[in-house]
Amino acid sequence: FLAPENTLTLGVFSERRSEFGIYLREDLGASLALLRDHPRERIPISLTYTIAYGRTTALPTSFCAALSACTPEIIALQQQRRVLGTLTAVVSLPRANYAIDPTRGSNASFEATRSDRWLGSSSLQRFTRFSGDAAFYRQVTGNVVVSWRLRGGIIFAPPPTDAAVVGGRITSFVPLEQRFY
User: Fold this and answer.
1) Alpha-carbon distance 49 to 89, whole Å?
2) How far apart, in whole angstroms, are the C-alpha atoms of residue 144 and residue 137?
3) Coil, helix or strand at residue 64
4) 101: buried, middle or exposed (CB in 10 Å: 19+, 13-18, 0-12)?
């Protein structure tokens, strides 16, 4: 797309995922992604816009025990179908010697995701999410490789402008599929 280092991808998806007996998540959506992967810089960067329409269903006990949504008002809000529009930027630092079975080096990635009304999201689903991941590899002997991994992230969710009041509190929701578990 406009240069050999760039790739433009358009995707359409329908997704149904579940944890048996706990929850069922159904989504229908599309994404547009631009990837810049320059062979000499070795720092792939992608920017993806995703729009999805979906909902999560579960028994009230499952919402409370597994998803920390315990009051009937919050459960009702979580089960509504909503539009989620996100813009995600990912920077990768592949520094391992092999992509499939590395024996030395490291791989790291950093991701920032924003969801807001101007991206098409429901007013209850505004958030900013940052996450990072790093894996390190060290060959000890011929066939023995020690590997360790670090992952972390943080999510900020401001109250919506047309705030929903549940139980006397202004609520904002990070979509269940965007949370860290």
Assistant:
1) 9
2) 10
3) helix
4) exposed
SS (H, E, C) 79-148: HCCEEEEEEEEEEEEECCCCCCCCCCEEEEEEEEEEECHHHCCCCCCCEEEEEEEEEEEEECCCCCEEEE
pLDDT in tens, the chain (181 residues): 677 788 899 999 999 988 777 788 899 999 999 998 877 777 899 999 999 999 888 888 887 876 667 778 777 877 888 899 999 999 999 999 988 889 999 999 999 999 988 998 887 788 999 999 999 999 998 889 999 999 999 998 887 665 555 555 556 677 777 877 7
Q: What distance lies between CA 163 and its chain's CA centroid?
A: 24
* 112-116 LR contacts (CB < 8 Å, sep 24+): 112/88, 113/86, 113/87, 113/88, 113/178, 114/86, 114/87, 114/88, 115/84, 115/85, 115/86, 115/87, 115/175, 115/178, 116/85
Q: For residue 121, what are its two tokens?
A: 């999201």
